[in-house]
Structure formats: C-alpha cells, structure tokens
Amino acid sequence: MTPAEVEAELLRRWPESQLDPSLDRIQDLLGVLGDPHTAYPVILVAGTNGKTSTSRMIEALVRAAGLRTGLYTSPHLERVAERIVVDGEALDDEALAAAYEDLAPYLEIVDARHEHPLSFFEVLTAMAYATFAEAPVDVAVVEVGLGGTWDATNLVDAQVAVVTPIGLDHQAYLGDTLAAIAGEKAGIIKPGSLAIVAQQPLEAAEVLVRRCAEVGATVAREGLEFGVATRSVAVGGQLLTLRGLGGVYDEVFTSLLGAHQAHNAAVALAAAEGLLGGGGESLDPDLVRTAFAGVRSPGRLEVVRRSPTVLIDAAHNPAGAAALADAVTDSFTFDRLVGVVGVLSDKDARGILDALEPVLSEVVVTRPPSPRAMNPDVLGALAVAVFGENRVVVVPGVADAVAEAVALAEDSAALGGSGVLVAGSVVLAGEVRRLLRG
Q: Which of 1, 102, 182, 213 is most deeply packed, by most CB within 10 A?
C-alpha cells in the first residue's frame, strides 16, 4: 500500500476529533495483537499545550542515554507517518504500509464485536504500539491524543505520567472548567507511578495532586521539586539552567524559542530523570546538553522562509496563542509582523485573535484545509472586532493568503525587520510548511 492508501483507509473511520468514552475497542484490538503495549516501559504525556514538544524532548534525553526509543505524537503536520518514530526516525513509506497491513486482517473482526467501529486514532495507536514491540524499543514516549482517561493511549500502565499545562480546549468532550478537564487528564496517573506536573492553574493543580494521593502516585511539581532556574535568549535559541529532580544542569542550549519551551524542557528533564534515575539520581550533564541541543520541534515557532521571515506555529487555543505571542516578543524584533490565521470551527477563535493582536500589525484570515475549518468570512468578522477593519484581509485560499501576507510584509521592508506569522491550527501550519518547504 502507498502512504496515501493507508491514510485513506484510516480516514474512512471515526475521526480523531471525536471521542467515544470507551477503551473496549482498543483493548480488544491490542489483545488480539498480543498486548504489544505491555512489552516496554512507557512515559505517557497529557495536557492541553506543549505535549508534542515535551514528548520530543523526553525522547531525545532517553535516546541520548543509549536506549532505543519509540515516540508517538499527534496530530501530524504533513504525513501520518510522522506520528510513529523509532530511534529518532519517523516510519518510512514501506514501514507505514507494513504496520497497517499487519493490523488490517483483525480490524473487521474487532469492528464486528462493538457498537462503533475502531476509530482513526485507535487504529493508529495500535499501529504505534505494535511497531514499538516489533522494533523492539527499550522505552516508549507516548503523547495522549484527547483528554486522558478515555484516550486510546491510556491502556498502558505508564511508569511516568506527565501533565503539561492545562487550559480550556475540547470542552465538548472534556468539560468546560479547568477542574473538569484536569480530572480527565489525571486519568493517566496510575497507582505507584511518578507524576511529573507542569505549572498549572490552581484549580487544575488541586485535581492532579488529589489524584496522586488517591492512587498512591509520587508527584513532582514544577516550581517546587524541579523547574527553570535561569533563562536567557541566545543566538538561535535560548540558554537555560534547569533544576531537575536529581541535580542542577547549567549551560543547556535549545533552539526551541519562548519561555514556554524552557518550561517544557524542565518538565521533560524531570520525566527523563524519573525513568532513568529513579527520580532521585542526576543524569550526566553532557548527555543533557547534547540531547537538548539536538531537539527540533517542527511547526512550533519554526522559520520556514527568510526575507521576509515566515514563522509557523501550531497554536490552536487561547493559551497556546498567548504563549506564542510572548515568544515572538521575546525572540524577535519585527517592525511589522503580518499574521495568517485560520481556525477550526470548534475552537475559541475570538480568544486566539485576542491573544495574537498585540504582536500583529495586520491579519490575513484564511480557511485551513480541513472539513472542520471555520468559514473565513465568519472568522474575518471576529477579526474585525478585535483588530479593526483596516487591519484585516480575508483570503480564503491558503496559498493566496500567504502570498498576500508576504506582500504586506515586503511593503515595509525598507523600514526594518518584517515577517509573517502563521497560526491558528495544526493543519494550517502543516499546509504552509508544505507550500514553503516543498
């Protein structure tokens, strides 16, 4: 099968944007496959923002320690195979096809046993777990798809459970309060595990700490047991001193930009220490420096073009957009920054626009390549309410929207630095990445 054929088969299934609160189907499928998810230790990463970057950092640290790793993240930017990574390399076309074809004979059998067929995400999760078992990997770092308790990834008994910052997102499935959302995400914390908890709003933190007490899990909290000691902007990234669970690590460079990535790094370090050092022993400082220096996180404040600079970011909720705006201010000195914004219809578009407005001179509103995309005229009306009519242009086609934004940025090139920032949805970031990077 070709990658396109594999993706087409997956897309015929229940979409990953919907959640049916049951683990019965994925448990049935993994059981038929011999429970591959039990063959290796797992670090499971949940949260609202920062999951993918944090997962990539954890994987880099574990791999730098000499262990063979599996990494499962979602959603993808450009191709489905990006989601399943073995020892630092995403599956190639042949491996992706083989992973699907190995499962295919069992899918109809499992589908027939349940009221709803297996979903896109359930099948892909089973592909990842089976791939990791076959590799085999020494450790898997797995990003939760949606929520926690009922997410298909949560069949694993994770030795280390990581919860990145929690905010309002996916309220239709997870609840409309931070406490309710934290309750769903707390479901990944299992008895006897180590919970690594990023800085959280108080009502979310209380839920997570209570869950740890209820199941007898050890908790390590950012700002108390570990954290960012110092941070400074450096050429091409930032320089950190991180206080881990087992020691202090200075002169840690990362090319990932923004204060939020520094906090992600602290969380990732604590998670790696928790697995590799038992939560109390420090790691080799040179190993830590090497691992962080090599981490890349495509689609996260990524430069995809120069002159003018074009940045893409997967921020798709108000908290993520606020972190993005802070990172742009922190890391760049644009005289004029033009936004290209496209949002999915179930997101808080007004909140995203409000967060981005202080750093954008103008905004070009467009339609992400998704059936769930918000109508650009509707989004344009929201943008006018935030930016004012003279600062908003509506261009439905993504390629045309980027061209318009680049033209606006180039108009002011003589005045100093100008750039374009693409944000609002993962699928928009992925589409622009394809357009500009080929």
A: 182
